[in-house]
Design goal:
298 residues; 11 helices; 2 domains; five-stranded mixed β-sheet; 12 strands; Metallo-beta-lactamase, Chain A; globular; disordered N terminus; alpha/beta
Length: 298
């Protein structure tokens, strides 16, 4: 497993590097389980929150964090269930969510993801050179079941509806809706730790994130709980509040462009000042909004 962890970590290091900081020392990371319902949990560690469904049908997880944490994650899963890990669903391709794929597959788990996730991961290993072949170890980390729009799983007394939401955080984002428990794992499209992060190089879009939030509100209700890729379990009201902020910032940037302001001027105009204490540095998201709007605003 250690060899596979090194190989997958190295292969993923070149993917979306602008979004990923240098990997920390994982030796002190603790994997902490949190219970959401009788059979739904999430694991908190270093990287994206891992959704977990346990029961007689086996263990199903959403994302698997970094490769060096796989043994700790598997130990945590054994603490929740005596059944084997059967399925891993990747919400998108970033290493803090899929880094453990090869290690999980080595245990017998089936990796599932949107078709774009497999494509991006494959290109990450080969640099997009179609003449290059993947090694057996690299193939092990790829999703082997892919979908374009939706896929449904029926496990542990729950109907699990997985659906692609179009370009948002990346071009391969999926939401995972545990229907009976009314819990949605959102991957990194929805987060509670910072302003949205858009991987434009992998097909991401701020406007797509806005559309995805609108979709979340359409499919959910006041009792739905949202498990973000990063952050804390949230409510529909939390999603709506963020969405309103997106509308406000979008409109301010749009008005600034119409007023003849350059990107440099927009970056200095304090357009997000009342939000920054809560959401952090806006210098990542403002250029994305500007670049998506500049060709549309006249």
């Amino acid at each position: 497993m250690k060899q596979l962890a090194k190989l997958l970590t190295a292969g993923l290091a070149c993917i979306s590097g602008s979004l990923m900081a240098a990997q920390p020392d994982f030796s002190e990371v603790e994997i902490i389980p949190h219970q959401l319902s009788d059979n739904i949990y999430y694991l908190q560690g270093q990287g994206g929150n891992i959704g977990v469904s346990v029961g007689d049908d086996g263990v199903f997880i959403v994302d698997d964090q970094f490769a060096p944490l796989s043994e700790k994650i598997l130990d945590a899963l054994e603490g929740l269930s005596d059944e084997p890990l059967r399925f891993v669903l990747n919400t998108h391709h970033h290493p803090d969510h899929v880094g453990g794929n090869a290690n999980m597959a080595e245990t017998g788990a089936v990796i599932i993801a949107h078709e774009n996730v497999r494509t991006i991961l494959s290109n990450g290993f080969t640099g997009g050179d179609l003449s290059k072949s993947l090694t057996d170890e690299q193939k092990l980390g790829l999703p082997i079941v892919t979908f374009n729009d939706t896929v449904n799983l029926h496990l542990n007394g729950d109907s699990i509806h997985v659906f692609h939401v179009g370009p948002g955080h990346t071009g391969g984002d999926s939401f995972v809706y545990f229907m009976e428990d009314n819990i949605i794992h959102t991957g990194d499209v929805f987060r509670t730790t910072s302003y949205p992060r858009v991987d434009a190089g992998s097909g991401g879009s701020f406007h797509g994130i806005v559309a995805s939030y609108e979709r979340l509100l359409e499919v959910s209700n006041a009792d739905t709980r949202f498990l973000p890729g990063h952050g804390v379990v949230s409510s529909q009201a939390d999603v709506r509040e963020q969405l309103q902020m997106f509308y406000t910032i979008h409109n301010r940037v749009q008005d600034a462009i119409r007023g003849g302001m350059t990107l440099e001027q927009i970056m200095s105009a304090n357009l997000t000042t009342e939000y920054d204490d809560r959401w952090g540095d806006p210098t990542g998201i403002l250029p994305v909004i500007y670049n998506e709007l500049i060709g549309l605003v006249h």
